Amino acid sequence: MHETVSAAQTGLLIVDLQNDFLHPNGAYGRAGQTAAEIAALPERLAPLADQMRAAGSWIISTQFTLVPLKGGEPLISPHLKTLRPFLAKGDFVPGSWGHRLVDRLAPADISIEKVAYSAFYMTRLEWILRKCDIRKLIVCGIVTNGGVASTVRDAHVRDFDVTVLSDGCAAFSADVHETAIAALKAVCRVATIADMLVQTSD
Q: For 159-182, what is each residue's pLDDT tens digit?
């Protein structure tokens, strides 16, 4: 017999839909690192976020963070520096415009700074979820094969009820996205935004 999970025990977990990733004036936009599928996500997800917010569910935003050191220079992991050499001082700084959740999906009830792919790695996310009795997570955001996949797998091993939105996530390549979604079917449910709009409506 499956346990019933209420709207108040459910969270929409929005992974890294930040201005520095999505906005043309953000860190990635200025570097020409964009993809149409990624840019389309906020508008696509907004109806679900609005419906869940109205139903009393939680809106949880994770924000990838580059921790500023002396003089404001960012602490960047070697693998990321190799992958994204354009990242520089002022990008993904806590509290900055670029660091924030995009306006179309704001405000979030809970915001989590993260420094790696998984939103659970060295963050307060699990502590807050337990304290708020949030048991079910509907996961969306970017990138499917990075932050989304790592967060979903970490949620799974912590026994959260997890659903990933196949059309609520994106990567820089459609093939990479589809491969990542297929691989996640072993650890979570996969649904569309339309599916969840039906399931979360009263």
A: 999 999 999 999 999 999 999 999
What residues does each domain of the chain span? 7-199
Provide DSSP, 115-146. SSSSTTTTSSHHHHHHHTT--EEEEEEE-III
Q: 141-179 b/e with 16+ CB inside 10 Å = b?
A: bbbbbbbbbbbbbbbbeeebbbbbbbbbbbbbeeeebee
Q: Show contacts of 64-71: CB within 8 Å, 24+ apart.
A: 64/16, 64/18, 64/20, 64/21, 64/92, 64/114, 64/115, 64/147, 65/92, 65/93, 65/94, 65/99, 65/113, 65/114, 65/115, 66/91, 66/92, 66/93, 67/94, 67/115, 68/93, 68/94
Domain 7-199 coded CATH 3.40.50.850:
yes
* Cα distance between residue 35 and residue 172, in whole Å: 6
CB 107 within 8 A of CB 59: yes
In terms of pTM, does the model score above 0.90? yes
